[in-house]
Design brief:
α2 links the parallel β4 and β5. The chain is an alpha/beta fold. It contains three helices and five strands, in the order βββαβαβα.
Length: about 170
């Protein structure tokens, strides 16, 4: 089984990535986590994802545990973009495959099939980890399905038929 992971982040005081929203989507599964800031600093937000540093309910030190336990049952993990795949792989100690390597379009090119419940994510121009992960998962399933149906025989064979006349 496969799962798609996406996250939205803010930059910290040392310009490090601070994950604010993390979403994991698989068959009939949707996990979304919202993390608090790892330390106290001047609150700021992002116009790109609508999140604020003050947002979140889960302590930041639970990021690795929440992610590791949520993806434990999945053989293959996917995310979009080299930086996200590298960050996630280092965090959980497992490979995370890049959807770009399979020809997946960007989240802006995919039609979202899921509406986020956060008030700041009701606008289409706002990047949402839940909506992105859901769109990427739908694309991945479509990609797998179309690749499995395109199975041609290795050797072209000629078929012959013998007809019997009963006149």
């Amino acid at each position: 089984m496969e799962a798609v992971i996406d996250y939205e982040y803010l930059r910290g005081s040392q310009n490090e990535v601070i994950v604010k929203e993390l979403s994991i989507v698989a068959k009939n599964v949707l996990h979304t986590f919202h993390f608090r800031s790892p330390y106290t600093m001047h609150p700021h937000g992002s116009a790109e994802n609508g999140l604020n540093l003050d947002d979140g309910i889960i302590p930041y030190n639970q990021l690795k545990t929440a992610l590791t336990e949520s993806v434990a049952g999945y053989a293959h993990l996917y995310s979009y973009g080299f930086a996200k795949c590298t960050f996630l792989a280092e965090l959980i100690g497992r490979p995370v495959l890049n959807l770009e390597d399979f020809g997946c379009p960007t989240q802006r090119e995919l039609r979202p099939g899921y509406s986020c419940v956060l008030p700041c994510h009701h606008f289409n121009d706002i990047s949402c980890a839940t909506r992105n992960a859901h769109s990427f998962y739908k694309w991945l399933k479509y990609h797998f399905q179309t690749k499995s149906y395109v199975k041609c025989p290795k050797v072209m064979t000629r078929h012959s038929a013998m007809f019997v006349s009963a006149v």
